């Protein structure tokens, strides 16, 4: 198990564990309500993001493609007031055989956990080691209070949107989720996305739009789009093991917000306000 700490505040925390993909207005409300409730108890909030999704670890990344980059999910959590954020990577063996003790031991190395907030029926691993009895036993020994909350109001149509995503129909997924799909530039300049190869359209951005993060729904999407500078550019993903390789367009800003993919037959390159030259992979403004 590998933990990547992005923020670790002092003091006790209420811990939340999940994949958190895609984000949603309901998720934002849940994070903010949890932060407010924890503050009244003198506690902070720790959000643990499992990346990759344990289901994808078991079945393969293409079987359960991610909507949003983990970096965007972390950025989103910060906008919602979450004080501490940790990304946890589990191996296949750890997903199959690990459980509550493995996960909680790992995050407690970095942050003091005073409470654990679970959705009804949530587990922290497969079988008995991750079940509620094992969770309660561990937390009782560690002095961690276990509470349950009603599931937050997730965006409807997620599974339908994921099916579109798996087939490169990003415009359909974006329409269902009322949000574009944000990915951050990696330090290496290239990364593997669990999406089909082909030509995609993406909005280059210096930072994710606050309107997209804080005001989901069609009105929020319209405000985000109206405030953008420039227009989408073409990005070509090439086949590679585990998905498709994205080479970041040279000169492009740190974020790309994807809006359509090769499965969207209605997308026409002539409608784009910029392009990526496939020979140089350089981002250029203007019409193709």
UniProtKB/TrEMBL annotation:
Listed EC numbers: 2.7.7.2
Catalyses which reaction(s): FMN + ATP + H(+) = FAD + diphosphate
Domain FAD synthetase: 11-153
Stretches the record annotates as Disordered: 264-288
Gene3D superfamilies: HUPs
Record-linked Pfam families: FAD_syn (PF06574)
InterPro entries cross-referenced by the UniProt entry: FAD_synthase, Rossmann-like_a/b/a_fold
Keyword Nucleus: no
Keywords: ATP-binding, FAD, Flavoprotein, FMN, Nucleotide-binding, Nucleotidyltransferase, Transferase
Pathway(s) annotated for this protein in UniProt: Cofactor biosynthesis; FAD biosynthesis; FAD from FMN: step 1/1
Protein name per its UniProtKB record: FAD synthase
């Amino acid at each position: 198990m590998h933990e990547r700490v992005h923020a670790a505040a002092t003091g006790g925390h209420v811990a939340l564990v999940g994949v958190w993909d895609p984000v949603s207005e309901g998720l934002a409300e849940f994070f903010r309500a949890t932060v407010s409730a924890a503050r009244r108890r003198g506690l902070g909030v720790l959000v643990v993001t499992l990346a990759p999704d344990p289901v994808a670890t078991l079945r393969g990344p293409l079987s359960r493609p991610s909507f949003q980059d983990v970096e965007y999910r972390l950025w989103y959590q910060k906008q919602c007031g979450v004080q501490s954020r940790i990304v946890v990577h589990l191996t296949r063996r750890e997903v199959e055989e690990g459980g509550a003790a493995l996960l909680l031991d790992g995050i407690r190395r970095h942050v003091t956990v005073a409470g654990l907030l679970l959705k009804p029926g949530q587990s922290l691993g497969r079988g008995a080691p991750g079940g509620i009895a094992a969770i309660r036993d561990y937390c009782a020994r560690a002095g961690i209070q276990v509470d349950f909350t009603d599931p937050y109001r997730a965006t409807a149509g997620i599974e339908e949107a994921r099916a579109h995503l798996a087939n490169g129909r990003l415009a359909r997924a974006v329409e269902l989720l009322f949000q574009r799909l944000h990915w951050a530039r990696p330090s290496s300049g290239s990364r593997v996305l669990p999406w089909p190869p082909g030509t995609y359209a993406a909005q280059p951005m210096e930072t994710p739009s606050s309107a997209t993060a804080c005001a989901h729904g069609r009105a929020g999407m319209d405000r985000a789009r109206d405030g953008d500078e420039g227009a989408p550019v073409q990005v070509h993903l090439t086949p590679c093991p585990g998905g498709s390789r994205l080479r970041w367009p040279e000169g492009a800003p740190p974020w790309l917000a994807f809006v359509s993919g090769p499965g969207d037959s209605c997308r026409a390159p002539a409608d784009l306000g910029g392009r990526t030259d496939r020979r140089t992979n350089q981002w250029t403004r203007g019409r193709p």
